[in-house]
Amino acid sequence: MTWHRIASLHEVEPGQRKVVQIEGKELALLHTDRGLWCIDFRCPHTGGPLGEGIIAEDEIICPLHKWKFQLCDGTHNRGTACEPAGVYQLRAEGDDVLVELENVKASSDNASHPAPRQ
């Protein structure tokens, strides 16, 4: 596993987000009440700006078609109409937020967990 620094813990305050590009991937780093999450910025449905969507509890709502994606595993509320969004593991090292770019597959065994807040 290769971890990449994408932010500092204090750079993205609760309720905020940051868009990052790393190794050809565009990701959204989201800070919710439960911690930090990382999900593909682009919606797998039509490529809309998922990372700009409304964050409601543990999901993000795509602004184009209102699909709801779970932040823990990328699954959505539209059955098999398209693949889940990619979600990525985070960890904190000191003040740094690191991401592992291997997409966490949508399953309860591999579900991502939010990075701890400090």
What does this structure look like?
The structure is a single chain. The chain is globular. With 118 residues, the chain is mainly beta. Mean pLDDT is 87; it is low at 106-112. The chain is built from no helices and 9 strands. It has a single domain, classed as Rieske Iron-sulfur Protein (3-layer Sandwich). It has a 3-stranded antiparallel beta sheet with strand order 1-9-8, with no helix packed on it. The protein has strands spanning 3-8, 17-22, 25-32, 35-40, 54-56, 59-61, 68-70, 87-93, 96-104.
Task: Tell me briefly what this model is.
Helix content is 0%, strand content 43%.
Key features of this structure:
118 residues, mainly beta, Rieske Iron-sulfur Protein, 3-stranded antiparallel β-sheet
Output the strand order for the largest sheet: 1-9-8
Looking at CATH, the homologous superfamily is: Rieske [2Fe-2S] iron-sulphur domain
Radius of gyration: 13 Å
Question: How many independent structural domains?
Answer: 1
From the 3D coordinates, which CATH architecture would you assign?
3-layer Sandwich
Number of helices: 0
Query: How many β-strand runs?
Result: 9
* Average pLDDT taken over every residue: 87
Structural class: mainly beta
Low-confidence stretches: 106-112
Helix content: under 10%
| Biggest sheet features | 3 strands, antiparallel
Globally, the shape reads: globular
Q: Span between N and C termini?
A: 24 Å
